[in-house]
Structure formats: structure tokens, C-alpha cells
Amino acid sequence: MKAGLVTFFHIHHYGAVLQACATQRAVEQLGGTCEIFNYYVNQNNALFRRPTGIGSAAADAHTALHYRAMKERYDRFEEFSARNLRLSPRYESADALRAAPPCDVYLSGSDQIWNPKIFPDGRFDPVFFSAFAQGRRIAYAPSFGVPRIPDGMEDELRGYLSGFSHLSARETRGQAIIREIAGREVPVVLDPTLLLRQEDWSALAAQPERTGGYILCYCISRPGALEPYIRRLHEETGLPIVQLCGIRQRVHPKAQCVFSAGPAEFLALFRGASYVCTNSFHGTVFSLQFQKPFFTAVSPAELAAPEQSRIFSLLDRLGLSGRIIGKGDAAGPADPIDWPAASARLEAERRKSLAYLRAALYDEPFAPEEEPSAPADAALPRLAPRTGCTGCTACAAICPKGAIAMERDREGFAYPSVDPAACVRCGRCTSVCPALHEKKPHPLPAVFAAWNRDDTVRRDSTSGGLFTLLAQDTLQSGGVVFGAALDANLRLRHTACFSEEELRRLRGAKYVQSDLTGVYREVRELLKSRPVLFTGTPCQVDGLYHFLGCRPENLTTCDLVCQGVPSPGVWEDMVRSMEARRRRSLQTVRFRNKVGGWKDSHLTLLYKDGSAESAPLFQTEWGRAFGRALFLRPCCHRCPYSSMSRVGDFTLGDFWGLRPDELPDQQELGVSLLIVNTQHASHIFDRLPLGRQPFPPERAIAGNPRLASPIAPAPDRAAFFAAYALEPFEEVRRKFFRLPSLPVQLASKALSPELKAKLRAKLKK
């Protein structure tokens, strides 16, 4: 049986060459022969490139400085390919390939061969779907490399996929795309480099050029979150740092850069390493193959949507997702890897992937092995994944045995932890988890600009003082009000207020996630005898409704327009830092004080000695870090509540975006955005003594983008939390919270928003 392989191999990239080699050898180990179609696709390996700007000129200058090593690398790639890849004659078009000698089967894969964005015209290349083939077509582990297929290309892709007898994908996102486009269920299989075993790769590795242990760093982009791990490993082990250069900038001042490695030397460097720090998929793969303690960093987009990440897809299956750093459950530098367990999982995945490849090659049906199910009495209940868990505490509150505790992770956020010994597997926690249930759409609400007519209250509030009116309405009916307040230790907790005198501590925005421990149960008990107003973020309101299992008539809820919730752990460290630097104890904090007016809110610190400090919020360290979403909970970046379909009876926020001629007499003291979402809220709204003016819903969205979509994570979020987990807080604060230089601040004020957007787009290229 002769297979013709269409894949990337020509470019001098370690992963491309090694995956092509692995696919060819895997086919041969299964009894076939395999020839790689030598198809040229815009892949330039020239040491010096055509100048396109400052970046390419700098790269050429660097190459000139290291010419001997770079030329050696080039020669080693060519030598490795000539020695280990069986190539056809060269073809430069689909027409030429149609005239090639026929094969028994045409194999597409692996790598991002189905990613339209990497080709010059931004379209699929039919060759990589074996569209030229005269025989049966199969696919092994191709990747689309994009979260979704560009508009207008779905029918084209559907046509290509229809010609395959056997399809598979390398990542779960690719599996979903094939399901959506072609309506076919396909397996997720291993990258070809994992089909071979450690001994296979050792046989292909060069002789070691280094003796003794070392920390191998292989980064194909800036190290970011890896930097504190590299520093800590170097400090604690004393081992030298060897940098296999994907990027050319040093990852550490003492890194010994290697520019001359070809594929065989690449393998030798991984085989000889004591530790590996990488942000490369194949760097992760060969850490696994050679069983090296490793740490992997991924992009912010992958952290926000791990289901679209090939690194998450692989390490989840092996039980090693904790080796991905910059998140709350990341392993520490000294945490060991359970290699026997990981190897057993890898071998099981390898068997399944080879079984699929065999079935595809020989045109047999493929039925994956059934996963052994855990005994019913051993399986713990299913809770939300970490990227979806809001920390609402509904699961812990509903547990009849107290088997669920909310425990903080390395990012300072609380997540449910189940005690297997106490859990009775009743499933009530699963049934009340909002993240595991689809959100029900609600009718388009009524939108108002509104304000409290009592100017004293309004001055003491964040915006228009509407919360106080809602709270007074409840209290005057003999009810109880729940909201967030800072306690004596400046920790934010939800608490109950039974009188108007207590309301002041609930007023105002607090840019920290509040603790709801015990609150849902307290609300349930109070609802048996009196009205309750509960105010919180949308996820907290939704958690309450799921916990109660209904919408009681005497419960009124008010959700907030929320940008995202900052880490309580980081906030508490910030409080200690401020107290240590000022050598004074804080009494309380007002996150948005109107000393400069509604549109120039200040962060005000009040100390126990009677002194105070105040500065514009976004000119303070905390305000700027919050504003750029540096330390928000992971679920905030994919928040399902960022829409006009609200869960609370009311929604409260600031009515940003008012023109100077709109409510000019009210803007200095603050104007609230009030959204009336339910009939219950409408009845209350009609009796509130407030000033109001209706607006169309699109005006609410224009001033509050979080009513339409969640906020993106800061590019350095993972780097911040990796440092936060390992380094003294003062060092982390100075590095990540510092204000920009004075020239940058002046430029920021002078540039228009449009020009800033253009500059940001330019810098991302």
C-alpha cells in the first residue's frame, strides 16, 4: 500500500519537519510505504529576506552577526530532510500533481494545512485537501488554525471535506468545525510527533554537544509568563540556561543562545535538558517524549478559550494541564510530574490514534475504544470548568453535607473544592450551577437615565444614587437589603442591612470580587418572613436564583453593569502594600469618590489616624490595572451575562456617553443607567421618587460596551499571574502596576481615540 502525503515540511521549522518525518514513519510502521509530495508553497528559507521595514532589517543585521551559526542551522535542516524524508519530484501546482504517479491513498496532514490565513490569497489551497488525487483521500490530524471559518468559505470547505473517506482533527476546535461544516463526527488524534516513541526520537537525535544539566528555553514568541519560572529555576538549581532560539531576544541575561541547531540537534537538546520552559507546541511535545519537567505558556486567546488551543487539548487528555502557567491551577517550579500516570494516558491516546490511522490507510471502519467508566459510587459530581466558574458559591451553599468548600487558587480567586469523603453524590451542586445551564433570553428591557433627587445621597454614591432608592423602598416594607461592603480588614463581603443608617457602607462601586459565603442560605431564610433586595454582579444574581430554584415574589434583584471582578487575593496584597509604604493602617477605601465630579472619580484612601489620600482613579496603580483588565477572573473574559438579556429585575450602572446638552443640570452629580427588566421591577419603578428620562437601548450599549460583549484579557495577564504566584508582591506591583512615563501620559492625553486605535492596530502587526 503506497500513501502519498501532502503536508508542510519544506520550511525550516522544527515542528514542520519533525511532524512530516513522524507521519511518514508511522505509515511505514503500519506496513505501508509513504512518499511526501514535494509541493512548494510560498515557504522561504533564505537566510536574508527582502527588506520590508525596520523589523526585517534588524533580523538581517542579527543574521549577519551570527552568520556562521545560522548557515550551519540551514545546512543541518537540509541534511536532516535529505536523510530522513522520502520526497517525490518537485511540484509547483495542482495541475502538475494530477500528472504525478498514482498512489493507493492520499493522506492530508498534519500541521495547519487547512488554515486559509497562512496562504498568500487568504484562501484554502486545494492541494492540501488532495483535490488533485485520483484515488481515496484520508486526513490525519490536520489543523484549521483559526477559531472559525471566514465568512463565505463554508461551502468551499464543505465540498473539500466531502471527498474524504476518513477524517480526523488535531484539536477539539477542528473537530467542532468539521461537525458544523460537514455534519460528521470525527476523532481528535495526536500530533504525528507523538505517534513515535522516545526511542524512535533518540535514534534521530544528534550526539549531545553539552554535558551536565541545564534549563532549556525554547520560545517562539516573547517568554512573558515564563520569565519568573526561568528566574526561579535558575536561582534554585544553579543550572545554566540554554536558549534554543526561536525568537532571537534573550529570555534571561545569562541565557546561552543556540542559533545553529537543526532538527537532530533540537532533539538532542530536549533529550539532555533537566527542565524545559517553552511556549511552543512542539516544545511541549518533546518535553513529554523525553519526560522532562516542563512549563508551557500559551497566548491570552488560548487562556480565555482553552477549547480552541492544541496545547490545552493535548495536556488535558494527559492530565497535565497544570503545566500550563499563568493561571490559577498552574504547577509551581518544584511540583513533580506523575510520569507513570501521564505515560499511561499518552500510550492509550497513541493506541487510539494509530488505530485510526490504520483504519484510514486500509479503508476500514474506525471504532474508538470505549473509555472505562469510573464506578458510580466513586465519580464526583460535575462542576463548571475553571474558565466558566464565576465563584458564585451556589454549589457550596446547596450541598446538604457541607462537602464543598470555596478555596483560593494561585490567582487569589475562590473555586469549589469537593471533599470525596463527605460527598454523597446527590448531584444537587451540578443541578444549581449556573455555568452548566443555558441562559434563557429575556425581552428587550426599558432603559432610563435616572437620578436620586436627594443631592446629599447622590454625592455619596458612585453615580445617580439609585441603589439607595431601591434599598429604602425595601426597608420601608420591613425588608432586608444585601450588598457588598468592605469589612474591618478591607475584605469585600456581601452583608445584610436592616436599617437605612447601615446603607452608606453598601453604596458605591467596589472593584473587587465579593465573598458570598453563607449569604444565599441567609437570603433563603429571610425570604420566609420578609422582602429582600439582593444587589450584585449578574453571575451572583443568577447563582442566587439557581440556588433558590425559583423567583420568589418578595425577592427583588438588581444586577450591575460589570466590567469584570478583580482578584480578592491581589486586592488584599495591595492593601498590605499601601499600608506598609505609608506606614499607616487603612480604615476604608472609596473606589470612586466624587471629589472631582462624576466624570473624574477619585480613589480615596482613609486612614485610621484621620489622614486621607485621593487621586483620579485611573491615575492610580489599582485603577489603571483594573481598567486594562489585568487581574480579572478568567470567566469574565467570556462572560455570558455581557448582553442586554439581563438576569436581575433591575440593572444599575453609570449612564456614560451623555452629550453635554443631555441632562446638563444633572451630569455634575452623576446620572445612573437604570434598566427595568421584569414586570416585578416595573411595579417598583412606578413608585420610586426619582428623576428619569427614557433612552433607546442602543444608547445604553454605546456608553457601556459590557452590555454587548465581555472585555478581552490584558496581553500580559498570564505574565502578571505567573509572577504573582512566585515573586514578592512588591516586585510584581512595581513591574505591572507602574504608571507610564510622563511623555507617554502626555501623548495619551493629546492623541484622539481614533489615532490611539490605529496605533494599537499597527503595533499588533
Describe this structure in words.
With 765 residues, the chain is α/β, with parallel strands linked by helices. The mean pLDDT is 92. The strands form five sheets. It has an eight-stranded mixed sheet with strand order 16-15-17-18-22-23-14-24, with helices on both faces. The protein is built from 27 helices and 24 strands. The longest helix is centred in the middle third of the chain and has 23 residues, at 339-361. The radius of gyration is 29 Å and the shape is elongated. Helix 8 (226-237) packs parallel to helix 24.
Keywords:
765 residues; alpha/beta; single chain; eight-stranded mixed β-sheet
Shape: elongated
Residue share in helix: 25-40%
| Portion in strands | 15-25%
Low-pLDDT segments: none
Q: Please, what is the oligomeric state?
A: single chain
Helical run tally: 27
- What is the CA-based Rg, rounded? 29 Å
Side by side, the strands of the main sheet go 16-15-17-18-22-23-14-24
Overall mean pLDDT: 92
The major pleated sheet works out as: 8 strands, mixed
Distance between the termini: 46 Å
Q: How many extended strands?
A: 24
Class by helix and strand content?
A: alpha/beta
